[in-house]
Write a structure and sequence with these properties.
180 residues; mainly beta; 9 strands; elongated
Protein backbone atom coordinates (compact mmCIF):
# COMPACT_ATOMS: atom_id res chain seq x y z
CA UNK A 1 0.00 0.00 0.00
CA UNK A 2 1.48 3.35 -0.98
CA UNK A 3 1.52 5.89 1.82
CA UNK A 4 1.80 9.57 1.01
CA UNK A 5 3.46 11.94 3.44
CA UNK A 6 1.71 15.30 3.34
CA UNK A 7 3.73 17.98 1.52
CA UNK A 8 4.50 21.30 3.25
CA UNK A 9 3.19 20.04 6.58
CA UNK A 10 4.32 19.95 10.18
CA UNK A 11 3.75 16.74 12.13
CA UNK A 12 3.74 16.79 15.94
CA UNK A 13 4.25 14.12 18.59
CA UNK A 14 4.37 14.67 22.35
CA UNK A 15 4.81 12.34 25.29
CA UNK A 16 5.15 12.71 29.06
CA UNK A 17 6.46 10.13 31.48
CA UNK A 18 7.25 10.13 35.20
CA UNK A 19 8.54 7.73 37.81
CA UNK A 20 9.47 7.82 41.46
CA UNK A 21 11.47 5.54 43.74
CA UNK A 22 11.26 5.45 47.52
CA UNK A 23 12.14 3.35 50.56
CA UNK A 24 9.32 2.55 53.00
CA UNK A 25 10.02 2.21 56.72
CA UNK A 26 6.91 0.39 57.96
CA UNK A 27 5.37 -0.29 61.34
CA UNK A 28 2.18 -2.22 61.81
CA UNK A 29 -0.45 -3.54 64.19
CA UNK A 30 -2.28 -6.89 64.04
CA UNK A 31 -5.24 -7.96 66.17
CA UNK A 32 -7.58 -10.92 66.41
CA UNK A 33 -10.77 -11.02 68.39
CA UNK A 34 -12.06 -14.57 68.66
CA UNK A 35 -15.73 -15.49 68.70
CA UNK A 36 -16.58 -16.95 72.14
CA UNK A 37 -19.16 -19.46 70.87
CA UNK A 38 -16.89 -20.77 68.10
CA UNK A 39 -15.71 -24.37 67.76
CA UNK A 40 -12.58 -23.38 65.72
CA UNK A 41 -9.51 -21.41 66.80
CA UNK A 42 -9.50 -19.70 63.35
CA UNK A 43 -12.92 -18.11 63.81
CA UNK A 44 -12.81 -14.45 64.67
CA UNK A 45 -12.39 -10.88 63.53
CA UNK A 46 -8.91 -9.95 62.21
CA UNK A 47 -7.54 -6.42 61.79
CA UNK A 48 -4.24 -5.27 60.24
CA UNK A 49 -2.86 -1.73 59.84
CA UNK A 50 0.51 -0.63 58.42
CA UNK A 51 1.85 2.91 58.46
CA UNK A 52 4.84 3.64 56.22
CA UNK A 53 7.24 6.56 56.32
CA UNK A 54 8.44 7.09 52.74
CA UNK A 55 11.97 8.29 51.96
CA UNK A 56 12.03 9.50 48.37
CA UNK A 57 15.20 8.51 46.51
CA UNK A 58 14.43 9.86 43.03
CA UNK A 59 11.64 11.41 40.97
CA UNK A 60 12.01 11.89 37.20
CA UNK A 61 9.64 13.64 34.79
CA UNK A 62 10.29 13.89 31.05
CA UNK A 63 8.31 15.79 28.42
CA UNK A 64 9.17 14.99 24.80
CA UNK A 65 8.20 17.23 21.86
CA UNK A 66 8.88 16.09 18.29
CA UNK A 67 8.19 18.41 15.31
CA UNK A 68 8.73 17.10 11.78
CA UNK A 69 8.38 19.46 8.81
CA UNK A 70 8.02 18.32 5.19
CA UNK A 71 8.86 20.14 1.98
CA UNK A 72 6.91 20.24 -1.31
CA UNK A 73 7.96 16.64 -2.12
CA UNK A 74 6.89 15.32 1.30
CA UNK A 75 10.51 14.88 2.48
CA UNK A 76 11.87 15.96 5.87
CA UNK A 77 13.18 19.51 5.92
CA UNK A 78 14.28 22.05 8.50
CA UNK A 79 12.43 25.29 8.90
CA UNK A 80 13.97 28.38 10.49
CA UNK A 81 13.54 28.55 14.26
CA UNK A 82 12.24 24.96 14.40
CA UNK A 83 13.63 22.52 16.94
CA UNK A 84 12.81 19.04 15.66
CA UNK A 85 13.27 17.29 19.02
CA UNK A 86 13.22 18.74 22.55
CA UNK A 87 13.13 16.85 25.84
CA UNK A 88 12.47 18.69 29.11
CA UNK A 89 13.75 16.74 32.12
CA UNK A 90 12.84 17.53 35.74
CA UNK A 91 14.26 15.52 38.63
CA UNK A 92 14.60 15.50 42.40
CA UNK A 93 16.55 13.32 44.82
CA UNK A 94 14.83 14.49 48.00
CA UNK A 95 11.35 13.46 49.08
CA UNK A 96 9.44 12.53 52.24
CA UNK A 97 5.96 11.13 52.64
CA UNK A 98 3.55 8.67 54.25
CA UNK A 99 1.23 5.85 53.29
CA UNK A 100 -1.21 3.65 55.19
CA UNK A 101 -2.61 0.15 54.53
CA UNK A 102 -5.56 -1.37 56.40
CA UNK A 103 -7.56 -4.55 56.17
CA UNK A 104 -10.17 -6.64 57.99
CA UNK A 105 -11.20 -10.28 57.72
CA UNK A 106 -14.02 -12.17 59.40
CA UNK A 107 -13.66 -15.97 59.67
CA UNK A 108 -16.61 -18.13 60.81
CA UNK A 109 -17.34 -21.85 60.28
CA UNK A 110 -14.82 -22.19 57.42
CA UNK A 111 -16.03 -19.05 55.63
CA UNK A 112 -13.87 -15.96 55.38
CA UNK A 113 -14.64 -12.54 53.97
CA UNK A 114 -12.29 -9.60 53.95
CA UNK A 115 -11.62 -6.15 52.59
CA UNK A 116 -8.63 -3.86 52.53
CA UNK A 117 -7.14 -0.69 51.16
CA UNK A 118 -3.49 -0.11 50.24
CA UNK A 119 -1.96 3.31 49.85
CA UNK A 120 -4.40 5.39 51.91
CA UNK A 121 -3.02 8.93 51.86
CA UNK A 122 -0.06 7.73 49.76
CA UNK A 123 1.97 10.86 49.01
CA UNK A 124 5.53 12.12 48.78
CA UNK A 125 6.54 15.78 48.95
CA UNK A 126 9.54 16.34 46.64
CA UNK A 127 11.95 19.24 47.10
CA UNK A 128 15.29 20.43 45.66
CA UNK A 129 14.32 20.17 41.98
CA UNK A 130 16.63 20.37 38.95
CA UNK A 131 15.58 20.87 35.34
CA UNK A 132 17.30 20.67 31.93
CA UNK A 133 16.30 20.82 28.28
CA UNK A 134 17.93 18.59 25.66
CA UNK A 135 17.51 19.80 22.05
CA UNK A 136 18.39 18.13 18.78
CA UNK A 137 18.71 20.83 16.11
CA UNK A 138 18.81 18.43 13.16
CA UNK A 139 17.51 14.93 12.56
CA UNK A 140 19.73 14.31 9.52
CA UNK A 141 23.23 15.71 10.21
CA UNK A 142 24.27 13.57 13.18
CA UNK A 143 24.68 16.47 15.64
CA UNK A 144 24.54 15.79 19.39
CA UNK A 145 21.92 16.98 21.85
CA UNK A 146 22.42 20.48 23.24
CA UNK A 147 21.88 20.69 26.99
CA UNK A 148 20.58 23.89 28.59
CA UNK A 149 19.52 24.48 32.16
CA UNK A 150 15.93 25.46 32.88
CA UNK A 151 14.56 27.28 35.88
CA UNK A 152 13.41 24.51 38.20
CA UNK A 153 10.28 24.84 40.31
CA UNK A 154 10.91 26.09 43.82
CA UNK A 155 9.18 24.74 46.87
CA UNK A 156 7.42 21.41 47.12
CA UNK A 157 5.83 19.20 44.49
CA UNK A 158 3.40 16.69 46.01
CA UNK A 159 3.07 13.35 44.18
CA UNK A 160 -0.04 11.40 45.22
CA UNK A 161 -0.91 7.86 44.18
CA UNK A 162 -4.41 6.33 44.13
CA UNK A 163 -5.72 3.97 46.78
CA UNK A 164 -5.94 0.30 45.79
CA UNK A 165 -8.96 -1.58 47.15
CA UNK A 166 -9.04 -5.37 47.52
CA UNK A 167 -11.53 -7.92 48.83
CA UNK A 168 -11.63 -11.65 49.31
CA UNK A 169 -14.12 -14.44 49.86
CA UNK A 170 -13.19 -18.00 50.73
CA UNK A 171 -14.23 -21.31 52.22
CA UNK A 172 -12.00 -23.93 53.88
CA UNK A 173 -12.96 -27.50 54.71
CA UNK A 174 -10.44 -30.13 55.71
CA UNK A 175 -7.73 -30.42 53.05
CA UNK A 176 -9.25 -28.07 50.46
CA UNK A 177 -9.84 -24.33 50.22
CA UNK A 178 -11.58 -22.16 47.63
CA UNK A 179 -10.76 -18.43 47.53
CA UNK A 180 -11.41 -15.48 45.28
Amino acid sequence: VNVAVPANSTLFATNSASQQTAIAVTGGYRAKVGFPSSSSNRDGFYLAVNISYLIGIRRDVTDLNLNLATDGAGLLTLTPLQTPLAIDYLYSRSGRGVSTDAGIVIVKNGWEIGAGASGIGNRINWTNHHSNRYKLTSLTTGVDFLKTGLVAPTGTIRQELPVEYVSNLGYSMGRWTVRT
